[in-house]
């Protein structure tokens, strides 16, 4: 029998597979810069924002404002009917949880229900928007996007002592209805565009939110990863374009070249983290220096002994830390003159060296030196009340007027590049603005910030308007709000998206104006029950045309804050450093955001990964969630406090107490069946006995576990 030769078959397979891979690369590879296809140029997200006319619809009596006409057009095209308007109790609970993240109080519900004025609902929305709780609620959405955290991440996950100032800046900006254009400009380039403004100093904390590995000795690798992270997040947040795929090659699907990625990244190439930026201006600085001088005089003798004791050990630890750096970095540190890029790496390296030395210098002490040092520290602490503290911020500045050179690794080798936008929108290098009030900055980030806040920018305006829509309805007009590319979703109502975008710019980029417009629409006021469930299931089961208001489960912060609210414990103190314990009665926005998260009640309910931008949280249903609400010690304690609030009125009838419990937890009174069930539950118990209190705890705990409590519609 002739032996079979397998070589020709293997070669045939090799050539077939090779041909298919080559064909796929031609099919999916993005074109070279400036040679995009007509299909790519015609893609909806890159088109100028249009000025669509409000459509004519048959059911015009349903329309309350232009939003409804655009939505109703889609509903009528599907031969559907919008849902009835929700009742007042539903509307006030929905609006309160939406804008404040808290349920309405019984008193607020009663006032709203009994107000006969025709504009009662509109007044409610205005009142909610004026509440300081609004900024705390909507800041959470923004902090998810920019992956805000109070810690560095990586193994050590070190606390960032001044990160909270950025969080408070976001809350204050939203409460004051700061123009979104200014809000963006301050975060991207506050130090360049508003150099003497405290808000702007806090705002550039956005550029300090990257995960930081404090023991990474390769400074080049560290800084390159940092720039990549900032570019990736900024593309997601402000452009709604997932750009990181273009870091290594032209994007396989979207019209983003690899060179575009590095052009965009180059806008940030001159910045460097700065640790000594303080608030309050020159007057505050003068006061600080005067008080510091007084403290130095008081402590001169103590410090005169401590300084020489520390000098040698600290110097030795710095030398040891420096010795662990790569050779190239040690050579840079030894240079008398450095390039801007080398200066950036030096600042990173010195931060690592100083941090390690400060943490370890005591290890160099002899035993008697340790004892003396401890005694001197105790003496020095006695003067702590006299030592002033600056209001410091974690912020950035440019390394100087000359930016480090930026490069792009092309097929021809390393190619220098200048900052620029997506070439499908503008292929030219960016014209860097001239800064009038800043002498030591490049103006690169200011240029990007002004481009992002140009009212004609087809991406940045649509992106924020789409986010606002998502935050109210659960899903954006484009359901992939961080990805307007071809792998993302297409707009369900493209004309509405453009109409809202135009309106937003006309309203001076006011977020509150858009909230008011959306929430006073008939679309937002709909019931969560469709008119014809069977027709909806056949035609639009995902409710893309919004013929009813989507039912939404509370997110982690809403749920925790609502439990604290109904139990009467919530602490509404605003601002300041994060509280480390979730058991605190402070609002959830002020609870420490750790990158290396522990399993807490909030994290059980789908808080996001703090290493990446989160545009839409997962909504899972797990046994752990049910156990956290039913058996969790923290939740049971809230039920105890809730019950004690109900029982505090010793003369109230049991029916009155039941009514109060329902109003507090669910925003409505009990039905007749609810009252009968509750009375049967309590009937065998002696009033005011311990067993009676235990039953009330169980009763309140049940209310906290109902779907009606956990869902906002």
Poorly predicted regions are 1-31
Mean pLDDT: 93
General shape: globular
State the helical fraction.
Answer: 40-55%
Number of strands: 4
Question: What profile does the largest beta sheet have?
Answer: 2 strands, antiparallel
* Widest sheet, order of strands: 1-2
Class derived from helix and strand content:
mainly alpha
Structure report:
With 713 residues, this protein is mainly alpha-helical. Helix content is 52%, strand content 4%. The chain is built from 31 helices and four strands. It has helices at 7-28, 38-41, 66-77, 88-99, 106-113, 120-130, 132-145, 164-175, 180-193, 198-203, 219-239, 258-266, 281-298, 300-323, 327-333, 340-360, 367-381, 444-452, 460-473, 494-506, 511-519, 522-525, 533-539, 556-566, 601-604, 623-630, 633-647, 654-666, 672-682, 690-705, 707-710; strands spanning 271-278, 392-398, 406-410, 413-417. The strands form two sheets. The chain has a two-stranded antiparallel ribbon. Strand 3 (406-410) and strand 4 form a beta hairpin. The longest helix is centred in the middle third of the chain and has 24 residues, at 300-323. Mean pLDDT is 93; it is low at 1-31.
Blueprint of the fold:
Layout: H1 7-28, H2 38-41, H3 66-77, H4 88-99, H5 106-113, H6 120-130, H7 132-145, H8 164-175, H9 180-193, H10 198-203, H11 219-239, H12 258-266, E1 271-278, H13 281-298, H14 300-323, H15 327-333, H16 340-360, H17 367-381, E2 392-398, E3 406-410, E4 413-417, H18 444-452, H19 460-473, H20 494-506, H21 511-519, H22 522-525, H23 533-539, H24 556-566, H25 601-604, H26 623-630, H27 633-647, H28 654-666, H29 672-682, H30 690-705, H31 707-710
Antiparallel strand pairs: 1-2, 3-4
């Amino acid at each position: 029998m002739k032996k079979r030769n397998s070589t020709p078959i293997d070669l045939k397979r090799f050539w077939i597979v090779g041909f298919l891979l080559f064909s796929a690369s031609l099919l999916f590879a993005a074109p070279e810069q400036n040679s995009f296809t007509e299909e790519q140029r015609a893609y909806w997200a890159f088109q100028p924002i249009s000025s669509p006319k409000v459509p004519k619809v048959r059911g015009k009596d349903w329309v309350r404002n232009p939003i409804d006409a655009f939505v109703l057009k889609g509903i009528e095209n599907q031969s559907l009917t919008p849902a009835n308007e929700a009742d007042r109790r539903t509307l006030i609970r929905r609006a309160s949880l939406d804008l404040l993240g808290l349920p309405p109080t019984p008193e607020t519900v009663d006032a709203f229900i009994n107000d006969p004025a025709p504009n009662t609902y509109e007044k409610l929305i205005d009142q909610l928007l004026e509440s300081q709780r609004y900024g705390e609620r909507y800041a959470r959405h923004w902090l998810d996007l920019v992956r805000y955290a109070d810690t560095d991440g990586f193994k050590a996950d070190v606390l960032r002592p001044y990160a909270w100032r950025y969080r408070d800046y976001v809350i204050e900006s939203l409460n004051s209805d700061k123009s979104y254009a200014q809000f963006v400009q301050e975060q991207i380039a506050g130090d360049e565009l508003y150099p003497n403004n405290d808000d702007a100093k806090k705002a550039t904390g956005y550029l300090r939110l990257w995960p930081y590995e404090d023991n990474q000795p390769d400074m080049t690798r560290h800084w390159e990863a940092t720039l990549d992270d900032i570019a990736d997040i900024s593309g997601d947040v402000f452009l709604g374009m997932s750009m990181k795929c273009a870091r290594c090659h032209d994007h396989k699907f979207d019209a983003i070249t690899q060179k575009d990625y590095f052009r965009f990244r180059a806008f940030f190439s001159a910045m460097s983290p700065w640790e000594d930026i303080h608030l309050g201006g020159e007057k505050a600085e003068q006061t600080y220096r005067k008080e510091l001088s007084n403290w130095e005089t008081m402590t001169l003798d103590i410090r005169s002994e401590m300084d020489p004791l520390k000098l040698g050990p600290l110097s030795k630890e710095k030398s040891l830390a420096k010795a662990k750096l790569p050779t190239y970095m040690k050579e840079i540190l030894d240079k008398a003159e450095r390039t801007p890029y080398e200066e950036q790496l030096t600042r990173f390296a010195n931060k690592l060296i100083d941090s390690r030395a400060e943490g370890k210098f005591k290890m160099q002490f002899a035993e008697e030196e340790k004892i003396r040092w401890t005694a001197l520290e105790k003496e020095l602490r006695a003067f702590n009340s006299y030592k002033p503290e600056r209001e410091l911020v974690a912020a950035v500045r440019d390394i100087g007027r000359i930016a480090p050179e930026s490069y792009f690794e092309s097929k021809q080798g390393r190619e220098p590049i200048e900052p620029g936008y997506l070439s499908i929108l503008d292929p030219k290098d960016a014209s860097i603005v001239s800064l009038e009030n800043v002498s030591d900055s490049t103006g690169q980030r200011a240029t990007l910030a002004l481009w992002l806040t140009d009212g004609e920018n087809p991406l940045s305006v649509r992106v924020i308007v789409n986010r606002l829509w998502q935050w109210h309805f659960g899903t954006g007009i484009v359901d992939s709000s961080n990805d307007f590319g071809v792998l993302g979703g297409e707009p369900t109502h493209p004309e509405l998206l453009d109409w809202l975008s135009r309106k937003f710019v006309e309203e001076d980029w006011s977020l509150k104006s858009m909230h008011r417009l959306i929430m006073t629409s008939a679309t937002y006021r709909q019931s969560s029950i469709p008119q014809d469930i069977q027709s909806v299931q056949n035609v639009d089961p995902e409710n893309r045309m919004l013929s009813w208001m989507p039912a939404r489960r509370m997110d982690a912060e809403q749920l925790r804050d609502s439990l604290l609210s109904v139990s009467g414990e919530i602490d509404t103190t605003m601002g300041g450093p994060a509280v480390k314990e979730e058991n605190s009665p402070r609002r959830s926005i002020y609870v420490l955001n750790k990158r290396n998260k522990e399993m807490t009640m909030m994290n059980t309910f789908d808080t996001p990964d703090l290493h990446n931008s989160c545009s839409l949280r997962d909504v899972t249903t797990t046994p752990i969630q049910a156990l956290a609400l039913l058996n969790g010690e923290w939740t049971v304690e809230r039920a105890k406090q809730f019950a004690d609030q109900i029982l505090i009125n010793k003369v109230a009838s049991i029916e009155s107490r039941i009514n109060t419990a329902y109003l507090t937890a669910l925003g409505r009174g009990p039905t007749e069946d609810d009252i009968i069930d509750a009375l049967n539950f309590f009937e065998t118990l002696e009033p005011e006995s311990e067993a009676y209190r235990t039953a009330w705890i169980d009763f309140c705990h049940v209310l906290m576990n109902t779907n009606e409590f956990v869902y906002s519609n």
